[in-house]
């Protein structure tokens, strides 16, 4: 066995140390990784970390992405039931489907609009796919108004029609929300009565809190099984996540 083999890979040791530090598991990592890298001196190891990061700056965001992903998965285990339990009627695809994809969405989000063809394609390809929609109105005050109307549409069994119409009419405003409600065929008086119920705002607050726990900072964000994705990731990545969750 060569000296380098005995010492291990300094880059891997340093990266492991950075990840553990980010996770708050500093105790014991230095001694283990310094030894693995063949560096018994703390100052020598710190210099190696500094030099390695200068030569390979891409590893730090990669390590932090992995750390965030690990944290999000840990959080998901504690809120999975809540994430997958839909607000009655707020669903796309097959409401009784056995495979669940959860989407956190904002009607003011251009990337959510961009993802609609991908979602449509997935629904067409998977008759057993249930897409639980979680309204996450974080981009504008009008987003909250549109989200309330979407939940009112869900209560009338017209969520898919309102969801599509809202994205087709443009960014949320009193005019576009009214146009989407009309296009979806909502009973407007019934919708206003639903919006006034505390459970509607409670649902939006719950979605925002769950999104915070999962580390979501934007929309769309997705959950399928143990997979968490953020952004307009495209049909292929969503398909992979659905397949893993099946």
Topology overview:
Layout: H1 3-7, H2 10-22, H3 29-36, H4 42-55, H5 59-84, E1 91-93, E2 99-105, H6 110-125, E3 129-135, H7 141-155, H8 159-169, H9 174-183, H10 188-195, H11 198-213, E4 221-224, E5 227-230, H12 235-245
The ordered string of helix (H) and strand (E) elements is: HHHHHEEHEHHHHHEEH
Distance between the termini: 45 Å
Total number of beta strands: 5
If strands are numbered along the chain, what order do they take across the biggest sheet? 1-3-2-4-5
- Principal-axes geometry comes out as elongated
Radius of gyration: 23 Å
Strand content: 5-15%
Number of structural units classed as domains: 2
Largest sheet: 5 strands, mixed
Polypeptide structure, described:
The structure is a single chain. The N terminus is likely disordered. α7 runs antiparallel to α8 and α7 crosses α10. The protein has 246 residues and is α+β, with helices and mostly antiparallel strands. A hairpin with a 2-residue loop joins β4 and β5. 62% of the residues lie in helices and 10% in strands. It folds into two domains: 55 residues; 166 residues, Glutaredoxin (3-Layer(aba) Sandwich). The protein contains twelve helices and five strands. The protein is elongated and about 75 Å long. The chain has a five-stranded mixed beta sheet with strand order 1-3-2-4-5, with helices on both faces.
Structural features:
single chain; 246 residues; 62% helix; 10% strand
